[in-house]
Amino acid sequence: MGLHTATIRWQRDHATFSDNKYSRAHTWHFDGGAVVPASASPHIVRVPYSDPAGVDPEEAFVASLSSCHMLWFLGIAAERGFVVDAYEDAAEGTLARESDGVLRMTRVVLRPRVSWSAPVPDADTVHALHHAAHAACFIANSVRTTVDVEPVG
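Below the sequence we write its predicted structure tokens.
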């Protein structure tokens, strides 16, 4: 359905390289002009060789799943005649070593909190909306990670 691109740019600062004492800070450039500061996670590469202000790939993975779910949720809710006033998700991803010894994002939990205008759907309808959004989210459909949706309120 489409080709999606990103340009990732990193350049060695004046530090040495072979001793692993180089900055992991880099930038993500997107076709619309957005430039996002990025870095390795400080949980994986210690500061000053990582930049805690940059988005790390693990955070981006979690944000991508959350954003995809939200966009589908909003579209499905609108199609069904509901009005969403606000949507916030305190999404969380777990990086863990699996039995084969490989680190993986093993689970992502989405915790969407939705505010509605009248008519406010009942809990079963909200659950069905989230289920439909999860089933439609092509990012969630593309990964082996367990993605759980736990609506809040």
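The two ends are 35 Å apart (CA to CA).
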